User: Fold these one by one.
Assistant:
Number 1:
Amino acid sequence: APGMLASHYAPVTPLEIHPTNTLWHRVLQMVWQGKNVAVLKLGDDGKAFESSKVTIICMPPKAVEYGSKLYSTLHRLDRGGFDCLLLELPPDASEWLAVNDRLRRAAQSPSRE
């Protein structure tokens, strides 16, 4: 069954998941390397990032809404010509367990192992 696999949907574009405190450092590293990056961040905290190499997508701050948008957003970004997808790690709370599990699986692409 699909939910039992180690990797369910995994984008072809490399996906990295980072805690908030290291996400923007990684974004800067990728920009300095000339990479075209999409950033999925949790909610809209007003943090702006000015660069033609960075596209920021604000994901819903509630787990159920986030989960319902996750795969459609990943599919859209996967077709967007990005070098890397950088994702802010959601909270480690019970209501986020399913979302975090999906994210972990999406980041485990067999072609990148």
Number 2:
Amino acid sequence: MNEPVFKKLDLEAFHHFAKGVYIRELFMPAGSIVTSKIHKTEHFALVLSGVVTVVQEDGERLIEAPYMQITKPGTKRALYVHEDTVWITIHPTSATTVEEVEEEIIAKDFSEFEES
């Protein structure tokens, strides 16, 4: 019997800054299972290309590009990537480094989110 083989992917995010805006761009290959971070802030999420199944607090849905949604604070997602997908998030911020942005917008766990 063939056992499924799982290997951890090291997905590289691309970071873009403009005055008052940070954009995180992530390419996810087909067949991947990806979990998001816990978001502290409301922001836009866009699927530029690809197809994914998203599971989050309000249920499961199939998303096909092009797609846009607003992510609410406290959101964490699990995704199954059916086709190579480019997902971006757009965050209002005055931060100018990735480290500053992550401190501002990402909770380390749900207890931190509940405190913030």
Number 3:
Amino acid sequence: DKEKFGKLEKGRLLKVIKEILPGMSTFKELINRLDEEFKGLSLYFEEIKDYITEQELEFRPILYVDIENFPKGIVAPIIIYLLEYFKNIPAREKILVFDECWSFLKDHASYIDECFRTFRKSGAFPIAISQAMKDFSIFDRELGQAITNNSYFKVYFPQELTPDNELSSFDIERVNSLGYEKGVYSECYLKSSDNSYRKIIRNYLSPLELELFHTEAGGDEKLMGFLEHFGKYFKTIPEAIQSFVRLKHEQNKTDYHFITSFKKSGGEHVVHA
């Protein structure tokens, strides 16, 4: 709260945190103790209190967080928490994917800049994703530059672009020439900050990748139907998915159509050949 916490108050708050933090074991304890020194401070956390756990979070090889599950007012602190979590994962090779959620970090440009610099030095690999390059500067120009300036590789998909310090007319011409063939391949343009790499890349998806990574609306209905009806006959879900993919992408698709056509009859599911 910039109105109530000027430079002096922020300094006093930091001093108190440093003094009491060693004796705290949970976040709630910390807030309650700070509330004694700064009356009403706990009210700032009223919206977030139901999302705080006292359980210790274990490091996991894959951690997925959907920010849509949280009130918008607490998305920024959640992202900052996740960045600190990422920094402390005890593995040198690690990847962080930022899918548009960076737009909630307005006024945190210096923190993001420091994070991205730290990641690069440690060998960690952060990836920031957005629908278009211009999105990085719409919300906070300084924040956008903190991300783009610290990104050695940039990958462009078809979009409207104008020449600037980042992109030349040559680059834009390459982006405008990108093509795809549905279900077969798609192209993107890879460019490095020092222009050592400036090339079009064609990505071919395997049948499994095509089933798991497509974004076509309703495209997963048959897969989910297969898992619902036949998943119980497999030891694991991955095995069931692999079987579905083999059946669907075989040249002779008779078997695939046999087991993926369902109809409800009198409350029961009937399999149609």
